[in-house]
Amino acid sequence: MPATMLARSPPTTVPLSVPGKAPHNPPFSHPSPYTRVGISPPQPGSSANTSAVPSLTSGSYAGSTGGDSESSNGGASGIDLVELMNDRLSNAVDPLPLDRSLARQAQTSGALNAKQKELQELQALAQRRLKGARSNFSEGMKAAKEVRKDLEWTQKHVS
Questions:
Q1: Cβ neighbours of residue 54 closer than 8 Å, sequence gap 6 or more
Q2: Which run of H or of E encompasses 109?
């Protein structure tokens, strides 16, 4: 029975229209994060708002007024936030324990290096002694074999 093959044509595709992409808008660029803020910290003992977030209803908040932040605050001088944070961080960390631990680490490292060197010297000495002991053992074995041969020769000639 002859096998007949049917020829198949490749499937046809229909072109589809794809809508274009919307034009890409560049992201909004923010002003520099390091700027002076026109508010002063509350004085000790005052009943000012001490939360980390200033009140938006307060008239003393520099961002709630429409004018310049320096002049609209009623004479308050600007604070450099970077300098303020640097001062707080430098006062928060006591460098003396860090210096002591660094000195202790250096001393320990030096002592460890000295012990390492001493161990390497002792290991080299042990290697030299082992080499000498092997040499002496080898010579002793040669002498023992020679003595055995001499004893065997003597027994054969004496008897």
A1: 39, 61, 63
A2: helix 95-158
